[in-house]
Amino acid sequence: MNRHELLARLHEDLQPRTYLETGINTGRSLSLSRASSVGIDPEFSITEEVQADVHLARTSSDEFFARRRPLAHLPVPVVDLAFVDGMHLAEYALRDVVAVERFTSATSVLVIDDVLPRKVVMANRKRSTTRWTGDVYKATAALRTLRPDLVVVEIDTQPTGTCVLMLPDAARGGVLPGYDDWVATTAVLPDPQDVPAEVLQRTRAMAPEEFLAAVDWTRWRRARQQGEGLAGARTLLEDLIRKNDELTSRVAPGA
Ligand SMILES: C[S@@+](CC[C@H](N)C(=O)[O-])C[C@H]1O[C@@H](n2cnc3c(N)ncnc32)[C@H](O)[C@@H]1O
């Protein structure tokens, strides 16, 4: 399954009221949305047929989220589904996640693209390959360390892997303690990056079909309608959390 097929399934299963995407480019992933949407990209050039009611913001995600009421276009100021696919550098991806989280409910789902490079050179911070992930993979590790309350699931999608985040907490107010230290010590490092074997070999990544089957989406949608909080939403993810914990404790052979 590729990243767009996973996104299409999430649109189908979640039936989000609202959708937000950072990095829209030609509108390929945006075209999957039928929800009220926001697309942010300083250099988009839409060539796809987009059927959603969408606010297109030709700007960087940092500038967009610094606005007073960035989601004024949406019928509710809550993002049910988000796709983070803007600048392929770890600190940008992490900032996008933290910024979107301010506008989530317990049942919102965030997806980050490009977290599983196949080769070290693809993960260079300075682009030198056609298919470029940058070092976005570091954002997954940072979230696992700095936000152990989040459910962080790496998904083995083609071509470059995705990460699904569940149980976001808007009450954190867009603040991530430890972010500055992480940028200085871990994110902004000279190429080549020290990409873990578990990332390159995808040993901790869940098959997309397994992820989709591990959540009862009918109950998840009902939980959203009922305004379920984090504790209640977590009880619906027991199966997913158990499977993910098994995967994340794995060590790659030869690592
Ligand atoms: C890989 S493309 C997005 C592809 C698209 N999501 C899809 O799947 O069809 C990445 C996009 O991120 C945009 N981008 C770069 N820096 C950005 C930033 N700071 N904020 C938002 N978008 C950014 C680029 O202009 C580019 O169009």
> Could you tell me the number of beta strands?
7
Strand content: 5-15%
CATH class: Alpha Beta
Nearest-integer average pLDDT: 97
CATH superfamily: Vaccinia Virus protein VP39
The CATH architecture would be: 3-Layer(aba) Sandwich
Which molecules other than protein and nucleic acid are bound? S-adenosylmethionine
Report the principal-axis shape.
globular
| Unreliable stretches covering 5 or more consecutive residues | none
What's the arrangement of strands in the largest beta sheet? Answer: 3-2-1-4-5-7-6
List the helices and strands and how they pair.
Elements: H1 3-14, E1 18-22, E2 36-40, E3 54-57, H2 61-65, E4 81-84, H3 90-101, E5 109-113, H4 137-146, E6 151-155, E7 162-166, H5 179-187, H6 197-200, H7 208-213, H8 217-225, H9 230-235, H10 238-248
Parallel strand pairs: 1-2, 1-4, 2-3, 4-5
Antiparallel strand pairs: 5-7, 6-7
S-adenosylmethionine binds next to strand 1.
Write a structural description:
The protein contains ten helices and seven strands. The chain has helices at 3-14, 61-65, 90-101, 137-146, 179-187, 197-200, 208-213, 217-225, 230-235, 238-248, and strands at 18-22, 36-40, 54-57, 81-84, 109-113, 151-155, 162-166. Strands 3-2-1-4-5-7-6 form a seven-stranded mixed sheet, sandwiched between helices. The mean pLDDT is 97.
